[in-house]
Amino acid sequence: MTKLRFLFPIILVALAGCGSPENAENTQLETIFFSYEIDTVYIDAKDEFLFLNMGLFFSDYSAKDGALYNLNSQSGRVEIIDLKNKTLERLVQYDLDGPNSIIEMALTGIKKADNGSLFFMNYMLMNQLDSMATKIASYRLSNEFLKGDDLKANEEIDGMGQIANDGSYFASVYGVYQTGGTYTGLAKVTFADSSLQLIPLDFWADMDKYNIKMDVGDGRAFSSPEYKFLTLDGNNLILSTTAKNELWYYEAAMDSTFHKEYSSAFTQNEKVVNYPKTANSQESFDQANKQKNDQVVFGPLVKDENLGRFYRYSREGDDSENNYAYVLTIFDEKLNQLHEEKMRDEVTIPGHYFAAKTFVHQGMLYTFLNIGDELAFIRLKPNFHDE
């Protein structure tokens, strides 16, 4: 496997709202005239109390269905949200016992595949059900179940990964992180033959420097690390973090990893460790975290499955009324940075640290918003005036 590294500087033109990307792969400048519309849409829950406790963490958006599948991890109920009509379409209760049980110890996510299958993720196990809610397969993330590459002693696959839209594979990170080590790279499990491919990748080497720790006694400690994000692009994998304006792209056909760095006109490109890294009280821990969290935070990449573009929200503390500057970055299908847009001062993108659950539906970005325990979304419509 080869590794390549690129730097993508952004050249700004004089017109507000226009950007000209230049990169190592394509030196031809392209001007994009961009604007956006933003509003809030509400979902009619039909007198049902939807499961919003975890901020839609256990949900999956299906571009094929135009629907959001929201899993209640406590009851096994799935709420199917029709986004076209902005309404709760139906509720489906899945079995927690018996031959079609979806749970082992605790549910961690759901995936609605384009072939009609539903995958229910338990941290180290995935159950696949057909359209009739019959269990047709289970996949366990261990050497005993998987073929191909072997995990070393103490290595394990992080069960909080992603399943491809076509339902063909699962991907996540792996390493010895549970025993004080670190992430070693990417793991890809192909369902057809239960084969495991390990992709070594040094993407987490210096992430510890951003941690803030608090010792609470009895050998216990709290930590506030940075976050990692995995985005699937067909058979290819994209890794990024909250701390740096960069990503790693694994291209399956070439069995190669590309490291891409970007430059922002509106935010820092990396966090600066100018805050205390240790705390001896909850108050000092919270204060240090606020110092860190007011620095730049890069959210996950989300893909427009129809157009192939990628979007990312980021934010950085400022002196505006809502205390943060929010930035939308747009990438093309090859992850070249096309445009950056600083949101108007009155715009707030929901999310405690990074953007809340975000996906692209019919070309528009939907970001989860909880309004008095009612389901809503901040909706941003991008307008590309050269199209």
TrEMBL record:
Where is the secretion signal located? 1-24
The reply on keyword Signal is: yes
Alphabetical list of PROSITE patterns matching this protein: PROKAR_LIPOPROTEIN
Keyword set includes Signal: yes
What are the record keywords, sorted?
A: Signal
Q: Which domain of life is it from?
A: Bacteria
Pfam families reported for this sequence: DUF4221
UniProt-recorded name of the protein: DUF4221 domain-containing protein
